[in-house]
Specification:
The protein is an alpha/beta fold. It has 2 domains: 3-146 and 328-341, Glycogen Phosphorylase B (Rossmann fold), CATH 3.40.50.2000; 160-325, Rossmann fold. 41% of the residues lie in helices and 16% in strands. The protein contains 14 helices and 12 strands. The strands form 2 sheets. The protein has a 6-stranded parallel β-sheet, with helices on both faces. A 6-stranded parallel β-sheet has the order 9-8-7-10-11-12, sandwiched between helices. β5, α5 (125-134) and β6 (142-144) form a beta-alpha-beta unit. α1 (13-24) crosses α14, α3 packs parallel to α4 (103-116) and α7 runs parallel beside α8. The longest helix is centred in the N-terminal third of the chain and has 20 residues, at 63-82. It is globular, with a radius of gyration of 21 Å.
Amino acid sequence: MITIIAYPRNADDYTICYYDALERLGVRIIEGDFSLRWLNANRREVNFIHLHWPSFLYGDKRQLASLNKFLRLVSLLVLARGFGIHLLWTAHNLYPHEANSIAALDRLARKIVVTLSYRVFAHSSTAASLVMEAFPKADRKLVVIPHGHWIGFYRNECNRAVARSRLGVSDDRFFFLFLGSCRRYKNLEYLVACFQNGQFAGSILWIVGRFQNAEYYGRVMGQIKRQPQGLQLENRFVPKEDLQYYFNACDVVVLPYLEVLTSGSVMTAMSFGRPVVAPRVGHLQDMVNKECGVLYDPLLPGGLRCAMEEIRELTFDDKVIRQHARKFNWEDAATRTVQALS
């Protein structure tokens, strides 16, 4: 039997759905205690350790604490290898979106993880190529698995009219939506500026999500205050059961990342049948076709604004978008994982 120590098991909806699919195939998933003592006591019970975001295990605003956690992580991985336990890493990103207090640790940690890994998972062929380019030692370790869709996982019981009524949005407004964690790499100041400087009469843009950094919130809000017409910012976490109101009310989901390898937010939008505007980078190039949205060149000045103007003139079929999203499923991801580990 394949037994995996998951670090972590239920961190977010991705790990919940992915590990549930693996368990349906008979894989045993254990929520591990991240300690050398626990690993030593349970070394005969497991075959693999699976990491998703290694930086979560050593990141700290205090440099000394970060260094100590980093050394602990490396010690655990080396000990696990000595016990014959193989390391797995899913490359959700090439490097952490926010640098560690000791910036050099991020690159060093990635190199160590890739070197020690038995398998490295990426979510598309393009993402795999980028991982290979950044980490040549990932050669022959890479396995492409899909990022599953969320259809049926999130509640989706309301139509556009009900959703707009709930949010107080009139039916005649073209509704751009950003929804998700509001972090610097999401490029929200640029999104606001593009909306303010584009041809968007009769349109609205809502930015909805929790800001983790007060200074960044202040910068985005300051940008909005310069020309607030049509703009709304909600600095709050949206519960899963309320996602349906925002996605069903909006016309387009805009995700103006500065950099990204894989995007669960794009898959969320497509699972609700919403077209997206996003940069033509990473995994997005393999996910978003012309029936599902508009991708823009992030190096082209005005690329995001032009894409937002273009998508207002296009027509999309929510059923076609959801049909496309269904091609990316957790069962396939689990099956490919088991095949790679058997």
